[in-house]
Amino acid sequence: MIGAQELGIQHFDRMAMHYSILELNTAIKPFVFQRLRQRPNVHKIIYFDPDIQLYSSGAPLLQRLESAQAVLTPHLTAPLLDDRHPSDLAILQSGTYNLGFLALRCDADTDRLVQWWQQKLLRDCVVDIPRGLFTDQKWMDLVPGFLPRALIERHLGWNVAYWNLLHRDLSEENGQTMVNGQPLFFFHFSGHDPHSGWVSKHQDRFRMSDCSATAKKLFAQYSQTLTDHGRERYASLPYAFARLADGTPLPDCARRAIRNHLDWSQPIPDLLSLEGARYLINFLTAAVDTRQPAISRLALQLYQDRADLQAAFPDMLVMRREAYLAWFAQQAGPEAGVVGVLAGLPARPKQPVSTPVSPRPQAPAAAPAAAAGAAQVVTITADAAEPAVVLPYRLAYRLAWKARHLLRPLTSLEFRQRMRLGLLHRAFPPQRPAARPAIPSATANATEATPATATARKHLDAGLTLIGYLHAESGVGESARATLRALASTDLPHSAQDFRVGNVARMAETVDGRLLNGTQYAISLFHINADQLPVARTFIGEAPFTHTYRIGFWAWELENFPREWDAAFGHVDEVWVPSSFCQRAIAARSPVPVLVMPHAIDILSELQPDRPRFKLRQDSVVFLAMADMMSLAGRKNPFAAIAAFASAFPGADHSAQLVVKIAHPDRDPAALKKLQALAAQCPGIVLLTRPMDRSELNTLLDSVDCFVSLHRSEGFGLVIAESMARGKVVIATGWSGNMDFMNAHNALPVDFDLITLPADEGPYRQGERWAEPRHDDAVAKMRLVASDPALRQRLGQKAKADCERWLSPQGVGAAMAARARSILSALGAR
To answer: Are 49 and 190 a contacting pair, CB within 8 Å?
Structure first.
C-alpha cells in the first residue's frame, strides 16, 4: 500500500483541503502512475477502479500493450436512443472514455502524458460540468491525439457497466460469463447498492428486476463478496480529510471556496496542521464586504453554488442579506453540512468581535479577516456579583450528587434527570461571553493579547496545571498519568492536583510528588470526564474555572456524544481527546475546538517477563485479555476472548494458554460468575482477579506473546497500545479509537459487524451502535499467532516502531507543549 502523502505531491495539503473525497481519490492517479514508473523493470501499468471485478485472463490486455502505448475503453459503442439517464449528452459531458480503467506502456510519450495530467489535476480534477470538467476523466478525451499509438478497445466484454448495459447481453456458457457471445473480461459495478433495487444509483434505466438471470447473479455475487470482506466495516470509516486538524467539519462548499478564492501564490501554512486549520477558518469566515449584517466568504460561496438560493434571495448582497442569513443560520447545517465555527457570522472587518448572549455556549466567533492565521476563542465567564446568586444552587447540586445513591431507588430516572438539569441550569446559568485573545499561529504576533485579558491573568505563571484522578487504578487515571509522562519530556512548567470525588477505583498508583506543589498555572487541564465536570467544580472551587484557560481531556467510546452532557462545554475553552474516533463524536456537538492529543506510551528497551509468577508454562504461546469491570463488561467483552480461545485450542491443548485479567471484579458479580464458569470449561485458561500494582501489571504484559481485545468499542485502547509498545502482537477488534495506531501492518485487526444496542448498557444508550467482533475471524487469527513465530516477531517489531513514532512521550509531549505555548502567548502569561 502507498499512502497518498508518500506520493511526493507538492502541497498535497492543498489538494486534500480543496477536493472532495471523489475528486481527491481520482486526482492522485497520475502521481501513482509516476511512482510505479520509477520502480526498476516496470514496463506496463494497469489501473482498475475498486468497484471492478475481473472474470477472465488478462493476457489479451498484456498482449495489446506490447504495441499500444495506452488502452482506453469508451463509455459507449452505440447510441442511447431512449429518454433515460445517462443520455448521450451526459456521457459526452463526463468524458468519452471511462477512467475506471487505464493501461499505459512506459515510454517517453506516456511519461510526458502523465506529467501533463498531473499538472491538470492539481486544481482542475473537479466535478464542474458547466466548465466541461469531470474529475480526472474528461482530460483523457485528448489522449488519442497526444499518443501516436493509443488503442480504443471496443471488445464488448471489457468494462461492462450501467452506461453500456443497454448494448450488452449477458449469458452463461459452460460456467463462463459471456457478453454478446464474447468472454466477459471485467465488469464495473459503479454505483451499485444492493439495497436500492437499482443497477446503479447513477442511472434510472435499469432496475435489478430488468436484468437477465446472469446479470443478477453477477451483482449478487459481487455484493456477497463485499459483505464477506467487511463492507460494513469499511463503509463506516470516515474520510481522512473530512475535518480540519482542530476537528471542524469541512463541507464541500468550503472546499469550493478554498479552490476558487485562495491565492496559492501567497505564503500559506500547512493546511493539514492546527495552524492551517486556523488559517482556513479565518479565510472562510472572513466578511466579503463592509456591509452589515456581514456575509462570510463561505456563506457567499454556498449562495453562488445554488440556483435555488439565487432565485429565492435575488440581489442578496444588497436587499436580501438578512433574509438569506436567517436561512443560512437555520438550514446551512442540515442542507450543506456547515456547522460549528464555520456556521458563525463573521465579525465586522477591523472591528471588535461580539457574541450574542445565548442559553448555551455558541461556536467561537470568527476573527476579523485581518487577523490571518489566528482563531478567536470565546469563553464563558462569570460576573463579579454572580457567586452570591448561584452559590445556593451549586451547594444544592453538590448535596444532590452526594445523595445520588440514596435517591436512585426512591425516584424515577425522568425525575432525576429533570432535577439534575434544573440545578445545573441555575448553578451554572448562561453568562455573558467574554472574548478571549486570539490563539496565534506561528506567523502571527506572539505577544498579541487584549489588555483586559493580560491584566486579569498577570498573576498566573505560564504553565499548565493538570487536575484529575492521578492515583486511580483505572483508565481515566492512567490517561492523566500518560499526559504527565508526555509533559515530563518537555520544558513546559506544569503541576498536578489530585481529584478523587466520584471515582471508586483503588487509589494505589503513584506520580511524581514534586508536581503536587499547589501551584496553579495559567492553563488548567481537567482529566475529568465531561459528566463529572459540574461535580468537580463544586468541590474544587471557582479559581481554575474562572481565572485560567480551561481544557477538558475527554474520551467517549461510541459514535455520538451524549446530548445530556452538552452543558459540560460551558466549563471549558477547548477539548483534548485521545483519538480521532473521539474527536468525531465530540466535535459534532462541540461549540469549542476539539484537538487530538493521543495518550503517551512508554517505549521500553528491555522487558522483564516472569511466567512462573503467573503459573504460565514456558513452552506455550500465551494470550492475554484484560477487562476492568468499572468500564462495563459488555463493552470490554472478555467473554468473546474466552470463547475464541476455546474454539481455537479445544481440550487440553498445551501449545497455548489464555490469561484473563479482571480488575475491580466486585463491581459486576454477575459478569465475574459468568467468566468463572466459562474459564472452568477450558483447561488452558488462567483467570486472575486479584489487584495488581503497575509494576506487576507490566510484568504480566511482558510475560505474554499476544494481547487479545475483542472489545465492542474503545475511546483509545490504552492496554492495546501498551502491549504494542512492548513488541507484542495484538489481536483486536478493528473499530473505534485503537484504529488510530493499529492497522493490518502492525497488528491483526478482527473483522466485525456494527450492531445496534437493543437496550441501554450502562452509559450507552439504546439505539447507538458498537462493534460485534466476528468469532471465526478471531479464532483464525489466534491459531495463526500460535503457529507462526516469525509473524509474531515481525508484527511485534512493527508495532513497537509505530508506537515509538506516534505515541512516544516525547512526540506527544511536543504536540501538547506547542499548543500550550500558543495559548499562553495569547493570554500574555509570564
So the answer is: yes
| CATH domain 449-596 topology | Rossmann fold (3.40.50)
Alpha-carbon distance of 401 to 421, in angstroms, equals 12
Domain 611-807: give its CATH architecture: 3-Layer(aba) Sandwich (3.40)
Of 175, 161, 225, 171, the C-alpha closest to 56 is 175
pLDDT-derived band at 390, boundaries 50, 70, 90:
low
Residue where the block lists cell 465488469: 187
What local confidence, expressed as pLDDT, does residue 345 receive?
A: 59
C-alpha distances out from residue 86 to 203, 229, 541, 764, 781, Å: 6, 31, 66, 45, 46
Count how many Cα atoms sit within 13 Å of the Cα of residue 419 in the half-sphere of its side chain. Answer: 16
pLDDT digit string (tens) for 189-210? 999 998 889 999 999 999 999 9
CATH architecture under which domain 4-229 falls? Alpha-Beta Complex (3.90)
- Quick one: average pLDDT of 719-734? 96
* Residue 788, amino acid: D
Averaged pLDDT of the chain? 85
As a whole number of angstroms, the distance between CA 805 and CA 812 comes to 10
Summarised one tens digit per residue, pLDDT across range 451-496 is 233 334 446 889 999 999 888 877 788 999 999 999 999 999 999 9
Q: What percent of the chain is predicted at pLDDT more than 70?
A: 85
The yes-or-no answer to whether 4-229 and 449-596 have a common fold is no
- Predicted confidence at residue 158, as pLDDT, reads 97
Query: Which one has a higher pLDDT value, 475 or 797?
Result: 797
Residue boundaries of the structural domains of the chain: 4-229, 252-379, 449-596, 611-807
Q: SS3 sequence, 579-641?
A: CHHHHHHHHCCCCCCEEECCCCCCCCCCCCCCHHHHCCCCCCEEEEEEEEHHHCHHHHCHHHH
**Closest to 489 (Cα-Cα) out of 209, 179, 807:** 807
Instruction: Retrieve residue 482's grid coordinates.
Output: 500518560
pLDDT at 141: 94
Residue partners of 762: CB distance under 8 A and separation at least 6: 632, 634, 635
Place of cell 446530548: 563
Q: Is the dihedral of CA 346, 351, 352, 357 positive or negative?
A: negative
DSSP helix, strand, coil percent of the chain (3-state; round to 5): 40, 15, 40
Closest to 104 measured CA to CA, from 145, 56, 43 = 43
> What sections of 683-725 are H helices per DSSP?
694-703, 718-725
Residue 293, preceding peptide bond in cis (omega within 30° of 0): yes
594-653 per-position pLDDT tens digit:
999 999 999 888 899 999 999 899 999 999 999 998 888 999 999 999 999 999 998 777
Taking a C-beta distance cutoff of 8 angstroms, is the pair 33, 251 a contact? no
Cell triple for 148: 501516436
